[in-house]
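Exercise 4. Each item below gives a protein and its sequence. For each, produce the structure-token representation.

Item: Lipoprotein (Bradyrhizobium amphicarpaeae).
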Amino acid sequence: MSIFKVVALCAVAAAVSGCAGRAPAPVSVVQPQDRYMDCAAVTIEVQTNNAKVQQLASDKGLKVAQNVAAGVAGLVVPVLWFGMDFQGTADTEIQALQARQQYLGALAEQRHCGDNAGEPDKVVAESPKKPRAKPKAPPPVPTAQAAPPPAEQK
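Answer:
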């Protein structure tokens, strides 16, 4: 083999293996800042985690397509098999985010978040005014029109 072929093969292998994926970085279920979180912070983090889960699901679908393409192309050029991702990064991170979401749900329940339907506590500066009651109308008088008695048949 010529030196050019060896260098080209190494360059292709390095480039393709760089696409092989990244190591999973799962989020920890309990985090140090949790004790300081109020209901608004819990809600914001839940929404952020939901967006991350959607992004990871999309990435997972793209990674499956990439693995299929690398597997098929690897039949012709076996070096491409080094580009396949078998780490399951998206699955690991999604599971960690789901565990975190469950913990945040328990934390929100413990702190009674959502008891007032998400509305902030209102400060009342004036005493509330009582609405005036409308006078009741007298009940309608029934107008019964009696039907004539049925005629006797002979």
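Check: The first helix runs from residue 3 to 17.
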